[in-house]
Design brief:
GO molecular function: DNA binding
Radius of gyration: 23 Å
Pfam family, one: GerE
Strand content: 5-15%
Distance between the termini: 35 Å
Protein name: Nitrogen fixation protein FixJ
CATH topology of the largest domain: Rossmann fold
CATH class of the largest domain: Alpha Beta
Keywords: DNA-binding, Phosphoprotein, Transcription, Transcription regulation, Two-component regulatory system
Number of strands: 5
InterPro entries: CheY-like_superfamily, Sig_transdc_resp-reg_C-effctor, Sig_transdc_resp-reg_receiver, Tscrpt_reg_LuxR_C, WH-like_DNA-bd_sf
Helix content: 55-70%
Order of helices and strands: EHEHEHEHEHHHHH
Number of domains: 2
Length: 205
Amino acid sequence: MTTNGIVYVIDDDEAMRDSLNFLLDSSGYSVTLFDDAQRFLDALPGLAFGCVLSDVRMPGIDGIELLKLMKAQHSPFPILIMTGHGDVPLAVEAMKLGAVDFLEKPFEDDRLVSMIESAIQQAEPAAKNEAISQDIAARVASLSPRERQVMEGLVAGLSNKLIAREYDISPRTIEVYRANVMTKMQAGSLSELVRLAMRAGLLKD
C-alpha cells in the first residue's frame, strides 16, 4: 500500500481541518476533509474503508448524532471523537455509541497518529469480512428463483436427477441451471459452492 490507510476528518473549524490534513498527510495517511457530518454521510456509501476522525461539537449533525447514524447503518468504519471542552460525560456517551476512543484538544500529534493506526488495525479485518459477506449476498441475490432452488439442492448433496425429479424438470435443464449457478456464484467447484452457501447463511456449519 502506498499509504498507512485512509482518514476522514470531519470538523467545522477550517484551521483545525488544515492542521490535521498536514499532520496526517505527513504521517503517510490519505486524508479526505469534510466541513460537516452531513456531507460525510452523503458520501459514505462510495467511500473506501478508513478511520473517521470527527469533532464532537458541530452545527447540524454533531459527533454524537453521527455515531448514532453510523451505528444504525452497521458501518465498519472506526470512529475517533475529538472534544475541545474536556467534556467527559459526552466522551463517555461517544464510547458507548461505538467510538473507538476520544481525545481532548489540544492533543499530542503522536498520540493521535498512534490512535488512528490502532483503530485501523483493529477494524480492518472485520471490515474486509463484512465486504466479502456483502459480495456473496449480492451473488445469491442475482440468482433466479429456480437457480436458487437448484443451488439449495446442490449444497444439500442432491444429484442432478434428484433435483430434476423434485421440480419435475429434465436433468438436462438442471445441468443448465447448475452451470448458471456456478457462474453467478463464481464457484469453481461444488465444495466452493458449499462454502459460499455457508457464508451466505444458507447452510448451517
